[in-house]
Amino acid sequence: xxxxxxxxxxxQKTKLIELAERLFxxxxxxxxxxxxxxxxxxxMVELRDMRGAGLIGEGGLGLRxxxxxxxxxxxxxxxxxxRGPAYPINLRIDYFSLDGQVLHLTxxxxxxxxxxxxxxxxxFWQSASGQPWIAGGAPFxxxxxxxxxxxxxxxxxxxxxVEQAVDxxxxxxxxxxQASAPSGQPHVLATLLVETHP
Length: 198
Prior knowledge:
By secondary structure, this protein is of the alpha+beta class. It has three helices and twelve strands, in the order E-H-E-H-E-E-E-E-E-E-E-E-E-H-E. It has helices spanning 10-23, 40-52, 165-178, and strands spanning 2-7, 30-35, 62-65, 71-73, 80-83, 89-96, 101-106, 115-116, 121-124, 142-150, 162-164, 188-197. The strands form three sheets. Strands 4, 6, 7, 8, 10, 11 and 12 form a seven-stranded mixed beta sheet that branches. It has a three-stranded antiparallel beta sheet with strand order 3-5-9, with no helix packed on it. Strands 1-2 form a two-stranded parallel ribbon. Strand 6 and strand 7 (101-106) form a beta hairpin. The protein is globular, with a radius of gyration of 18 Å. It starts with a strand and ends with a strand.
């Protein structure tokens, strides 16, 4: 038996292990859960709730960081490979940090959302002005990269490059609830937990 997912702290992980031992005394469970502390875990819950509400789905969208490694050290380059679903899409790539903020990697204030042809794969690694994406500093721990693909352009208005995740996710929910996806071309989401280190 294998249990995976996320918990907010080590105490909750211990409780989960103890619960698995009580429920399945004859079998040792493999517990591989990531510790994602508030406020980042609240962002993950909001994204999960959007999936539950049918505003966004999973599947058909691939995401890979730096050739497959889910770890970043301070000042590492950030290269994100996105594999699109079987229909053309508009992309949003966001980096959610431990402190409850979100950095909008793309689109930015000067350029619209990038487009990806049906089934295409593309690597993203710099801003519209040519500045490479670089991993930031402290605090270090588990952070989140989120890619959202929509068949129709989604306009979230003019936004700061870095803002509070709670504000962004509230507006994203509102806009996705108003943007109807074409039949067979749902809005989709891919996420990746990233471990950051000094």
